[in-house]
Amino acid sequence: MNRRDFVEKAGCAAAAFVAAAGISSGQEKGTPPPPPRSKRYKIDIEIFEARPDSWCHEKGDKFGYPADWGKLCPWLRASLNEFVRLLENGVTLPWTYDGTPYAKLLDPEGVTTEYVRCPDPTSNLVAKIIRTRV
Q: Whole-model pTM?
């Protein structure tokens, strides 16, 4: 896409940002886009705790990421979002919660877990994120 077409479609502010950042599509010079990053981790989400009368999820419910992302309650999904992004990019959060029901596995080369509570004050919902190296 040439600069004139970009400015017409995206607006002047976006064009100024691209120019200031030195971003180039690379297609003008005939270079192919970079290949997509290979998937290094599998992310699963399990409902670890839930009230018996919970309206959205039951204890033991399991979800795959990203396939089942839309099946999660929006409040829980909002809480999980940053943790999932970090874990899928190889970050291991250092706290462990030893001596609690939320003690984590921390193995960057194998399985790593993280626990996240839903912000809905009535749900008592805790999700367990399980990252597995593939």
A: 0.70
Beta strands in 17-125 (DSSP E): 41-49, 62-65, 111-117
Name 36's Cβ contacts closer than 8 Å, sequence gap at least 6. none
d(CA 100, CA 15): 51
Residue 66's nearest CA partner among 56, 47, 81, 51 is 81
Matching residue, tokens 């099946």: 71
Query: Does residue 62 contact residue 109 with C-beta atoms inside 8 Å?
Result: no
Stated as kind and residue range, the H or E segment containing 128 is strand 126-133
Best CA proximity match to 65, nearest among 49, 77, 79: 77
Cα–Cα distance measured from residue 70 to residue 63, given in angstroms and rounded to the nearest whole number:
10
In the predicted model, is pLDDT for residue 67 greater than 60? yes
